[in-house]
Amino acid sequence: MSEADNLQTRHIPVTVLTGYLGAGKTTLLNRILSEQHGRSYAVVVNEFGEIGIDNELVVNADEEVFEMNNGCICCTVRGDLIRIIGGLVKRGRRFDGIIIETTGLADPAPVAQTFFVDEDVRQRTKLDSIVTVVDAKHVLERLADSHEAEEQIGFADVIVLNKTDLVGAEALAEVEARIRGMNAFATIHRAERCQVAVADVLGRGSFDLQRILDMEPAFLTEDDHEHDDAITSVSLSSERPLDQRRFNDWIRDLTATRGADILRFKGILAFQGTDRRVVIQGVHMLMDSDMLGPWPAGAARISRLVLIGRNLDRAALVSGFQSCVA
């Protein structure tokens, strides 16, 4: 049997990596891909917004990264995923697994459903587990206003309770008790900056269809799912370099005054006076930045920033961002 024929019959394990905006999914994905595990993964990254950021933030060693930013993965996954898996098999390259990082606004149920209702996908893959990253600091707020956050926890086989260093012991115990009350079956790993062992999140073989059917009997036939239409994204870009001091003043003022409405922001920026890409990420009023490395030779140095939240004033954001141009 040829390698291509073997790929046709082998069930490739799939891990669905989910979690609300800013929980740390990309951080966990990069930890997985940076480990010396000797395995090769195909990665599917889904984003919410017109400009793709996550694809450049994912470590890309031997992995192949497929980006989908044409909407919610739980609405588009059937067509896109079928095409991606079919393409992988036809090329004959052997992957040890597929990792799907969903947008933070995705309900994981339709994603998981695809691996059982589509015959072509079912013959070539198996759903290994749903891994949900949870932001220990903000999860109780999200459970109060987001159906997706509830579904992400309810469907999880493995939960990475992240950012535990940002909350006290009593608050952390409250969060964990709330999660356990929603999902008594998932394994919970406490973590800071998603520092968990790869063996704790990949190859678990822990997805249990019967448990899901007990929880949602219509799981295999349900077509409708909810979205919070009040959440929108604003994508900003500039082909001219930014003044770092003006940008820092603007983003600090923005998060201080509008941080309650900003669920997530991330960007890759080109500042005047440096040839290195600067990554900025944040949730509400919390913000972090880092150097990603030099701009690739010949690549256009375009600053891109995406904000996701409620009641976002697009015109004011565009004006503020443009005022940072050097």
Furnish the topology, listing elements before pairings.
Elements: H1 3-9, E1 12-18, H2 25-34, E2 41-46, H3 54-57, E3 64-68, H4 73-91, E4 97-101, H5 108-117, H6 119-124, E5 125-135, H7 139-145, H8 147-154, E6 158-162, H9 169-182, E7 187-190, H10 209-215, E8 231-238, H11 244-258, E9 262-269, E10 276-283, E11 286-294, E12 303-310, H12 314-322
Parallel strand pairs: 1-4, 1-5, 2-3, 2-4, 5-6, 6-7
Antiparallel strand pairs: 8-12, 9-10, 9-12, 10-11
Helix pairs in contact: 4-5, 7-8
Characterization of the model:
The longest helix has 19 residues, at 73-91. The strands form 2 sheets. The chain has a 7-stranded parallel sheet with strand order 3-2-4-1-5-6-7, with helices on both faces. A 5-stranded antiparallel sheet has the order 8-12-9-10-11, with helices on one face. It is built from 12 helices and 12 strands. By secondary structure, the protein is of the alpha/beta class. α4 packs across α5 and α7 packs across α8 (147-154). Helices cover 36% and strands 26% of the residues. It is globular and about 55 Å long. α3 links the parallel β2 and β3. It has helices at 3-9, 25-34, 54-57, 73-91, 108-117, 119-124, 139-145, 147-154, 169-182, 209-215, 244-258, 314-322, and strands at 12-18, 41-46, 64-68, 97-101, 125-135, 158-162, 187-190, 231-238, 262-269, 276-283, 286-294, 303-310. The N and C termini lie far apart (60 Å). It has 2 domains: 3-215, P-loop containing nucleotide triphosphate hydrolases (Rossmann fold, 3-Layer(aba) Sandwich), CATH 3.40.50.300; 231-322, CobW-like, C-terminal domain (Hypothetical Protein Yjia, Chain: A,domain 2), CATH 3.30.1220.
